[in-house]
Input
Amino acid sequence: MSKHFSLFTLHVSLYLLIPLFALAEGGKSQVPLADPYILLDGGTYYAYGTNDANGIRCYTSDDLRTWKYEGLALNK
Output
């Protein structure tokens, strides 16, 4: 039982560290999206998600590391 609890605790701890890997050097997320969805089409990754009340933002990337803001995919 103790072994299972230790493994569970390890997994939860690692899960809680995931947001730290998404942070840029300045301590801010490179792509500040809530509930992101990433789609690959023709060698380009498209990330969609919400950030503010204006609508759904769209970012593009060729390498999943550097992202370019493309504007709103859907306006409110």
Q: What stands out?
A: The chain has one domain: 2-75. The two ends are 51 Å apart (CA to CA).
